[in-house]
Amino acid sequence: MGKALIIGAGGVASVVVHKCCQNPEVFEEICIASRTVSKCDALKEKLKEGKTKISTASLDADNTEEVIALINQFKPDIVINVALPYQDLTIMDACLATKVDYLDTANYEPLDTAKFEYKWQWAYKEKFEKAGITAVLGCGFDPGVTGVFSAFAMKHYFDEIKQIDILDANAGDHGYPFATNFNPEINIREITANGSYFEKGQFIETEPLEIKRVYNFPEIGNKDIYLLHHEEMESLALNIKGIEKIRFWMTFSEKYITHLRVLENVGMTSIEPIDFEGQKIVPLQFLKAVLPDPASLGPRTKGKTNIGCIYQGTKNGEDKTYYVYNVCDHEECYKEVGSQAISYTTGVPAMIGAMMVLQKKWKKPGVFNVEEFDPDPFMEALNKWGLPWKEEFAPTLVD
Ligand code: NDP
After folding, report:
1. SUPFAM superfamilies in the record, alphabetically (predicted)?
2. The pTM is what?
3. Of 44, 63, 305, 323, which has the highest C-beta tally within 10 A?
4. Residue 52: partners with Cβ closer than 8 Å, 6 or more residues away
5. CATH top-level class for 145-337+388-392?
């Protein structure tokens, strides 16, 4: 059916590549392009026996001209951006210049400010409309599936949703005292930033990790959850009509929080460049270099993730609650694609989103967040491609 250019060759990209290769009717041909081409070649070597034709390329995606040249050479139907958020705009510019559809899993961030906002990418809306191409923003799990869950809840269960609590639990244990499950730089920037939640039309800021609760997760049990700012709240606040409150919660263990506080207190999580032996270095980038590579956690991680959303609202004048979630097992993911569940739960939705565009189920000109598309074919695909979901109609609420 089509050709996808996959940019990036890290933890998430590896899952996207595996899943595209499991789905050769849709992904007849892929090109894996990244800064370190040896990682692309290693992926190709692993998967070359399948039906999907694979090529690789060396690419600096910070350079729009390089991306344009590769698109012109490979002629993909869609670009799947699973590099880092810093590359979103240069890749979108290249898609505009070549009139190719675009999908990513994280909103653009400028390198020097940890700001999680869609404004830079939403500014491309008109240009994408005029070019007649589709951009799907934030199509991982959160953001991503959480937006699809929200559109599904709205379509099938509610007249009005008043409150959304997004709950992201990782009960995986990799055996290291401290490591992050996806790119450490991106992960730590997110966690050390101020928290926020949406209430009555505005975002209310909190100190980092200021608000904590305990939640008893299905199949995982009691976990400490902390309120974070998370990018999908911004689009859901606009796209779920009548919404009054949105909160995002993530689990962290005591051990993780203690390590993080120490690293923060000694300045290792700062993104301000410092002088070190005659050269400028960013402490957080140095920390990333000494922490375990998230891709290496796969074989060591045991346990499950549970990510889902609790909705409160009304249907036919009656109050209603609804919880929809996916439970994913780290070891099962590793067995299937050689990655842990965090990469898996991000990479599978990225493949599905690209499939939706190629199959023209999610094809309209402009720049969209996932909740702006029909959730039904995507929900069906989640069950088929490794992320089955479960529903509860009287869940325990987060207080
Ligand atoms: P990794 O650090 O493992 O991989 C990033 C990849 O991008 C690496 O292969 C890296 O190359 C490549 N890259 C970086 N800069 C460039 C560049 N300028 N040009 C070309 N390639 C480049 O990250 P993850 O796989 O863990 O994360 C990928 C994305 O997924 C991130 O944007 C992250 O925020 C997002 N994500 C989204 C989630 C969601 O649920 N929505 C959850 C988890 C992650 P090199 O090997 O040379 O470093």
Report:
1. NAD(P)-binding Rossmann-fold domains
2. 0.95
3. 305
4. 20, 21, 23, 24, 27, 28, 29, 30
5. alpha beta
